[in-house]
Design a protein that fits this description.
The complex is a heterodimer of chains A (about 575) and B (about 350). By secondary structure, chain A is an alpha+beta fold. Chain A is about 35% helix and about 25% strand. Chain A contains 21 helices and 20 strands. Chain A starts with a helix and ends with a helix. Chain B is built from eleven helices and 18 strands. Chain B has helices at about 5-10, 55-65, 155-165, 180-190, 205-215, 245-250, 265-270, 285-295, 310-320, 335-340, 345-350; strands at about 10, 15-20, 25, 35, 50-55, 70-75, 80-85, 85-95, 100-105, 110-115, 135-140, 170-175, 200, 235-240, 255-260, 275-280, 300-305, 320-325. In chain B, strands 7-8-9-10-11-17-18 form a seven-stranded mixed beta sheet, with helices on one face. The longest helix of chain B is centred in the middle third of the chain and has 14 residues, at about 155-165. The chains are: A alpha+beta (about 575), B alpha/beta (about 350). The complex binds zinc ion (2 copies). Chain B: GO terms for molecular function: exonuclease activity; ligase activity. Chain B: Its EC number is 3.1.-.-.
Chain lengths: ~575, ~350
């Protein structure tokens, strides 16, 4: 376990893909089966066990530490798993225990046994809920700080180390000098701890049979389009589509050895997510692999990302959920048709094949992402800012910009240069007035770094500011220092970590806030909630009286929702 | 009759002051007579008229501020009692950096120990800490939170050596404070069997020479020549922490940014500095050692000078020890105050 922990620790700090790959290969090379296989499963999301709740971890640490010391430590570190991992009073470290508490560990006990990753995973799969706390506590005693951190991240399923399933599989492939696609092709017939896979790549065993007639093929990704790119790109060599604000998926279908159809849906990193979308799986009545965007479509109208999020947030996929949030695949590329690999064909050619396939499918749940006609980049810029004007119609608000694809582009894995670009729609901007500042967490705990801001509205007793959101990024470190100073120098009231600052028609600081969308909300006084708000600019120059009004937001909201949630009345 | 502890030591704007002996300890402003615990520049400042410190600390101050840094200097012999005014003073090893010492002041049957900065972990470059039983113990609390538990330094150094083996085409740039940490890392690398030259930023050179002249073997430590930086693939380079992120380090082949510091225990701190290989190596006591040391001195009263004072004061109070925070200003985080003055301005150009 400590070895796996050391790998995760190192990966967490390493930004470079190639360096990550080297670390992974090194780990797989020097770690025996079955540990390395479980590590691979952990990184590809293929582990099956019920996760532990953060409350369990908290409960364990509270029994063992002085509450005041824990509070100060958590405030300093800012991350629960990390605080617990560091403060955990392992045998011989009683100095954090409550002074009057009984020692939790007897000095005469033998040193605890350090678990292997395999033991942890196998135990998690079989331990009952009531036995889990004692198990976890025993492991925590035996592991070091990094080991405890990794254990908590693993069992709470918070293992985010910047390694995609694809990268982990690429590392396995490199171990034996084979192509990552080869691993991908056999992958879905395999199970943790993958001893047959390692044996094959290391030349010690037979190639595992591809149990999967509907495998994942690595996705092709785009580059953000920069302003200076236009001078270099010839508009006539490109085709454009809308960029949908949904989730990228790959749908693959084929026939098993028994002749029965096999249909699967993968995330863009190759995770099999079929179980979450049985309604869509059912619609995959073809053989091959297509690439598209998951959307929620009700009565022929694409819903916003907020609505999609609601389906994704539910764990149990019930018929009610499916009826309420019907999944839809809007497709834009085809990789395979039957056994035929189309990826080397030019995009324009693949598009024709895709159009034919979708026509043949004739299923309302699967449709084509329409092309956006344009002659010059200026045309496209106009279309991008106002999709409704060029035929996006009622779907305009599920569009977050354009995709621009070279007509001659093959379908290549990864993010090759010069073929695909995304040109996102500009965010919404609003000028708001700072109302409260709050202390940040972790490294920002000494700064007032979270700001609540408001816009003007007509209140019962005249013009007033109503809070519409809270932002804690978008500014530089230097701006943070200035904002922090502003909060301290203009405080009128304090509530614990929060300070209310001066604001009004004559005084107050205007913040230009950028955000991606709006949602109605009953939890907010203003009735609206922003998606991804951030401080775009600090308007030191702008008088507070000239900040925006709630009507500005209402207008954006009306454009965004167009149609009331059909089941909303029932819910309310 | 025992004196009150405040007759022996009080707090003044200049720092801790002993009225009965008429001297300051580690004053932050120029004074008539200063007793200095160790050479870090937040403790050992220039401009005092007379300075008393260990021989090594006096040498370090000489390197830092020029040989004539004080009108008069007096060498403190470890473990030897001397009379100053109405008090007896003794210097005892503190285990922090070369020459570091705790200062014991005794008068009328009361003993006060000013520990300066100290650590209990092993360090091949200085004498180990010795517990001095006392009535009042004055401690730092740089790492005074129970989340700071420093790991075995050898394992940390092994991480560095293993990374060099895994990435032989990249240079490993290790940020380390110029006094103490840098030399400790070099000595540990040697003890772990690393026998290649260890390349030094210009700001490290003179203090490293001083360590070597004190008989501490650090092996071959060439200074980095600006024009040769691109040829140092696979090398370990030690530089001041302020240099790991600046242009100077960008010229090395695909550098791996490392930082040797107790702060590296907390991920957010390491990320904030853009560190890719954090090495948790500290010259200060961790939480367990702070608590253990307080108990071992048997002190009934503890004053906490700087760092995370609140948690340590809380711990003392819950363990029946009288404690108060001094909130002293002017002492840096593990030598952070030091780096600004230690790195010569031209280090970027010709180092
Ligand atoms: Zn120091
Ligand atoms: Zn200090």
């Amino acid at each position: 376990m400590n070895r796996f922990a050391a790998l995760l620790d190192r990966l967490g700090y390493e930004p470079r893909r190639n360096a990550k790959l080297r670390l992974l290969v090194d780990y797989f090379r020097h770690t025996p089966d079955p540990d390395r296989g479980y590590a691979l499963a952990a990184m590809t999301g293929a582990l099956m066990f019920k996760e532990a709740k953060p409350g369990l971890i908290r409960g364990l640490v509270e029994e063992r530490t002085d509450p005041e010391l824990f509070r100060m430590s958590y405030h300093y570190v800012g991350d629960l798993a990390e605080t617990v991992a560091l403060i955990w009073p392992a045998p011989g470290h009683e100095s954090v225990a409550p002074a009057d508490g009984t020692p939790t560990i007897g000095h005469n006990n033998p040193p605890p046994h350090v678990p292997t990753l395999t033991e942890v995973i196998e135990t998690l799969a079989t331990t009952s809920k009531s036995d889990l706390p004692a198990r976890v506590a025993g492991w925590m005693d035996a592991l070091d700080e990094t080991g405890r951190w990794a254990l908590i991240k693993l069992i709470t399923r918070e293992l985010r180390v910047g390694v995609s399933a694809r990268l982990a599989k690429t590392a396995v492939a490199q171990l034996g000098g084979i192509e990552p696609d080869e691993v991908e092709l056999v992958w879905h017939g395999l199970e943790a701890p993958y001893e047959d896979l390692f044996a094959w790549v290391e030349g010690r065993g037979e190639k595992p049979e591809s149990g999967n007639p509907a495998p994942f093929r690595p996705s092709m990704l785009s580059h953000p389009l920069e302003d200076e790119d236009f001078a270099k790109l010839e508009a006539s060599e490109f085709l454009a589509e809308w960029k949908w604000d949904g989730i990228r998926l790959q749908a693959a279908a084929g026939r098993g050895s028994d002749g029965r159809p096999v249909r699967r849906i993968y995330s863009r990193t190759g995770e099999d997510v079929s179980r979450a979308f049985p309604d869509l799986v059912e619609a995959l009545d073809f053989e091959g692999a297509i690439d598209g965007e998951l959307l929620i479509v009700r009565d022929g109208r694409v819903q916003t990302f907020n609505v999609l999020q609601q389906r994704l947030n539910r764990k149990a996929v019930t018929p009610k959920l499916i009826a309420e949030f019907p999944a839809h695949l809007r497709v834009y590329d085809i990789l395979f048709e039957g056994e035929e690999d189309l990826r080397a064909l030019p995009f324009a050619e693949r598009r024709r094949r895709l159009e034919a396939l979708v026509a043949k499918l004739d299923d309302p749940r699967i449709d084509l992402s329409p092309m956006v006609p344009f002659e010059t980049w200026e045309d496209l810029a106009a279309a991008r800012t106002d999709p409704a004007s060029v035929g996006a119609g009622l779907d305009a608000d599920a569009i977050e910009g354009c995709m621009i694809k070279r007509a001659s582009s093959p379908y290549l894995p990864g993010r090759p240069k010069g073929y695909w670009y995304k040109w996102k729609r500009d965010p919404y901007l609003v000028d708001a007035v700072m109302m409260y500042g709050q202390r940040g967490h972790g490294k920002r705990s000494s700064f007032y770094s979270d700001y609540t801001f408001g816009v003007w509205r007509e209140g019962l007793s005249g013009e007033e500011l109503v809070p519409v959101g809270k932002a804690y990024h978008g500014f530089t470190d230097e701006e943070l220092v200035k904002l922090d100073r502003y909060v301290r120098n203009h405080t009128v009231k304090r509530f614990g970590p929060v300070r209310e600052v001066e604001y009004g028609k004559e005084k107050g600081l205007v913040l230009e806030v950028a955000f991606e969308g709006l949602q109605r909300s009953t939890r907010h006084k203003s009735g609206v909630a922003m998606r991804f708000p951030r401080i775009n600019r600090i308007r030191w120059d702008k008088p507070a009286a000239e900040a925006d009004r709630i009507e500005t937001l209402e207008k954006i909201l009306e454009r965004g929702e167009q149609e009331v949630h059909p089941l909303k009345d029932q819910e309310a | 009759m025992a004196l009150r502890s405040t007759d022996i030591l009080t707090q003044t704007p200049q720092g801790l002051y002993c009225p009965l002996g008429d001297f300051h300890i580690d004053p932050v402003r120029p004074v008539k007579r200063a007793l200095i615990t160790h050479g870090h520049s937040d403790h050992a400042r220039s401009g005092h008229r007379s300075v008393m410190a260990t021989r090594e600390t006096l040498r370090i101050m000489g390197v830092r501020y020029g040989e004539d840094f004080a009108d008069s200097t007096q060498e403190a012999i470890l473990q030897e009692s001397i009379r100053i005014g109405d008090v007896t003073v003794q210097f005892t090893p503190a285990g922090h950096v070369l020459g570091s010492a705790q200062i014991t002041i005794e008068a009328g049957g009361t003993r006060v120990v000013v520990s300066g900065d100290y650590k209990r972990a092993e360090d091949p470059t200085c004498l180990p800490y010795e517990v001095v039983p006392c009535d009042v113990f004055i401690t730092e609390a740089t790492f005074g939170l129970p989340v700071f538990r420093h790991p075995n330094t050898r394992a940390e150094v092994r991480k560095l050596i293993d990374s060099v083996a895994l990435f032989p085409e990249r240079a490993h740039i290790v940020g380390a404070y110029a006094l103490g940490k840098a030399q400790r890392v070099m000595a540990l690398l040697r003890e772990e069997g690393y026998d290649q030259p260890i390349h030094l930023h210009g700001a490290m050179e003179r203090l490293t020479e001083l360590y070597k002249s004190e008989g501490i073997p650090l092996g071959e430590t060439p200074k980095v020549v600006a024009a040769e930086r691109s040829k140092l693939a696979g090398a370990i380079v030690i530089c001041p922490p302020s240099s790991i992120q600046d242009l100077w380090s960008r010229r090395f082949p695909d550098p791996v940014t490392c930082f040797a510091s107790g702060w590296m225990r907390v991920r957010a701190r390491a990320r904030q500095k853009g560190v890719e290989l954090p090495l948790v190596i500290s010259d200060h006591s961790d939480w367990d050692d702070l608590c253990r040391t307080i108990q071992e001195t048997g002190a009934g009263e503890v004053w906490v000078t700087h760092g995370q004072e609140d948690a340590l004061v809380h711990w003392c109070t819950t363990h029946g020890i009288k404690a108060r925070p001094l909130h002293m200003l002017g002492y840096g985080d593990e030598g952070e105050a030091e780096e600004a003055s230690a790195a010569p301005a031209d280090a970027g150009g010709n180092a």
